Task: structure prediction
Amino acid sequence: EVQLVESGGGLIQPGGSLRLSCAASGFTVSSNYMSWVRQAPGKGLEWVSVIYSGGSTYYADSVKGRFTISRDNSKNTLYLQMNSLRAEDTAVYYCARLLSGSYFGWYFDLWGRGTLVTVSS
Amino acid sequence: DIQMTQSPSSLSASVGDRVTITCRASQGISNYLAWYQQKPGKVPKLLIYAASTLQSGVPSRFSGSGSGTDFTLTISSLQPEDVATYYCQKGLSFGPGTKVDIK
Result:
């Protein structure tokens, strides 16, 4: 079955660090564009970071310099290392596969169930 | 950066009604637009990509149209299970969402 399963969320104090994991099955992470999307409580969807199949990485301005996206090809797993966490980083973090093509543009076709990160003292 | 806006921000309609949601891009984006449905407490689900291509398994009462800067998502006959927030997306930008309720 093709799926994504996130883990690693929890309650963390401001300034702390957390690493999220996203285990993929049924397809190869390294052959795809993979992304993290978050949703603060009661708010909309916000793109956080993407890693291309070639390894290039990009970040939203709100997390640049604090978050790092990576993958472990041997484990077929995507990660998000989050440092210097702030209260405004509180959200459900979704791992998602991003498909791209010159005909259809970009879209997220596969989503994990999400993991909740709460930044609070 | 291209900005995405949606209207209305929320709507309430009766079962069986035709519902239309609009998404506008701040500059032309060809047909590079997707729509997602997020039911309360659930994961976002892809409905439509390339502005008008229905994702496999999505009911045919959902349709999308548009090109350039203006796009629409239409539910031809609203059902109770369609209560959700709908988001448009271009590239790495999402619209703010449209919440759909039953009257």
Q: What stands out?
A: The interface with chain B takes residues 35, 37, 44-47, 50, 58, 60, 94, 99, 103-109, 111-114 of chain A (CB under 8 Å). The first strand of chain A starts at residue 3 and ends at 7. The mean pLDDT of chain A is 97. The CA atoms of residues 70 and 109 of chain A lie 20 Å apart.
